[in-house]
Amino acid sequence: MRADLNALAVFAVVAEETSFRGAADRLGVTRSAVSQTLRRLEEELGVTLVRRTTRSMSLTEEGARLREEIAPAIAEMRAALEGARAHRAEVRGQLRLAVSTIAESVLSGTLLAEFGLACPDVQLDVLVTDEEFDIVAHGFDAGVRLGEVIEQDMIALPVSADQRHVAVCAPAYLARAGAPSHPRDLAAHRCIGWRPAPRAAPYRWEFTEGGRDFAVSVEPEVTTNDMHLMVKLARAGAGITFGMEDTFRPDLESGALVSVLDAFCPPFPGFFLYYPSRRNMPSRLRAFVDHVRRCRPERS
Description:
By secondary structure, this protein is α/β, with parallel strands linked by helices. It has 10 helices and 14 strands.
């Protein structure tokens, strides 16, 4: 019969302490628990390992031989545990993140670059994707997405200020086609849509009126999975497009694009770093969470 490895570990401590009471104190259990564990081990092996008297205990010949045989393995396991504890305290290793393609607060590079400088022994592996999947099942430490699509059993920490969706177009398109006064007017305009993948539905154009959210059915003349192309087409006057304000901010500030329908585009909670709720968090993830806490912007 195969002996319980936990029982062997208890036996090793008993042999070192030469006392049931000393072994119990060291293991943080009762003397009775130590005695019962040792008795089960002896029954499994079919030999007596310890001579017991009311005043003392000693190893039998079989017990002494077993102690000598398992001592190297016990020492190696203890060394491995100490190494694991030391490694846990070190901020090193690979940190895998799954980040939404529109999470400008992270993808601008500043947050990640500053973390790299602070923790040079951590290797960042960043997957930029809009695919929704279980980050734990796919081996990621954390993800960054809009708060509304994060599972409720995750811990979520803001990494951006409040965000806005905006509809934008080039001034030339506005001069040619006029500005829509209500989202329903978009049906009469040329629109540029975005989808994350070939089989995915195009990104929804959602607006708010009177405190209620609603979506507009837009049939884009152009749909692409390349956000840079979407912006270029809008800048070239191909039509109205829709997305995160941060995506268009440089062109809005330069005047290459102008926003329309602003009254229907209020701010909402932005992007969050999310990760599973677990007590023994890897040091590299804990360091990144602390970094985000220090750098996160004030909420609007």
